[in-house]
Amino acid sequence: MSNRSLRILKIGGAVITDKTKGVTNRAKMEEIRRIAEEISRIPDRLILVHGVGSFGHPHVEKYDLLHRVHPLGLAETHASCRELNLMICRELMARGVPAISVSPFNAFSIENDRFTVPLELIQQLVDNGMVPVLHGDMVAGDGQYRVISGDKIVEMLANGLGADRVGFATDTPLLIEDKVMDELSREELQKILDKIGDAGNKSDVTGGMRGKLEAILRIGCEVAVFQANPGAIEKFLRGERVGTIIR
Predict the structure, then answer these.
(1) Are β-strands 7-11 and 144-148 bridged in parallel, bridged antiparallel, or unpaired?
(2) Is residue 2 part of a domain?
């Protein structure tokens, strides 16, 4: 599948929730509303993926879901992820964006130890003028349950649907030796990956910045990593240069 006009935007969980350790299910509603307003100005041929921040990671940690099956823990985690997703979809719809929630727990599966994604469904939604909104979640299949990050979802959608541009809107800029780089090759990124730290004092069970950069290395189109300051998302959606470009 290929569509050169397709764009994928990932909103980091720390942008839209409070990811401080010990905090659970706390959304940054002002940020969500501002981002929804920016998206509403250029919503065409867009897939939106968002992290779940304090709506997901603390529950996974509490019930140790990376290492065991806990029915109530799975239920709480999925419900919290959906809660945040629906907050975002409602704010988008309030601004005229036809946002369609696509839940990985219901729409994805695991087969032969690999995630499978409903590419045809998501392509159909985009082709019919809707904005699919996906999120980090739990995924079931092959008798197991796995955490899937928003970054992994972006990687699979970008490569599976032939996206033209991918943007990662984060709470901090991508710093390389304390500097924001205008542009990086994937070869350069591979060399500096080991210098990138983990999630620090934030609650994150999906790898933090390291996991994001590893996903970016596997994405086959141009990627922009930028801080989600006011106006930055709109600039990305307009096709303007923003943040660090990885080619």
Answers:
(1) unpaired
(2) no
State how far the Cα of 99 lies from the Cα of 129, in Å rounded to an integer: 10
Q: Collect all residues with Cβ–Cβ distance below 8 Å to 38 and sequence separation of at least 6.
A: 231, 233, 234, 237
The count of residues in the chain is 247
Sequence-distant (≥ 6) Cβ neighbours of residue 198 within 8 angstroms: 204, 207, 208, 209, 210
Q: Given the structure tokens 């590893």, which residue do they identify?
A: 214
State pLDDT tens for residues 123-179: 999 999 999 999 999 999 988 999 999 999 999 999 999 999 999 999 988 877 778
Q: At which residue do the structure tokens 């992820």 appear?
A: 81
Rounded Cα distance, 13 and 147, in Å: 15
Joined together, the tokens standing for residue 44 give: 């065409």
Q: Around Cβ 222, how many Cβ atoms within 10 Å?
A: 13
Q: Which domain holds residue 82?
A: 7-246
Number of domains the chain is built from: 1
| DSSP structure string for 203-246 | --SS-HHHHHHHHHHT--SEEEEEE--TTHHHHHHTT---SEEE
Q: Are strands 179-180 and 109-111 parallel, antiparallel or unpaired?
A: unpaired
Task: Supply the pTM of this predicted model.
Answer: 0.91
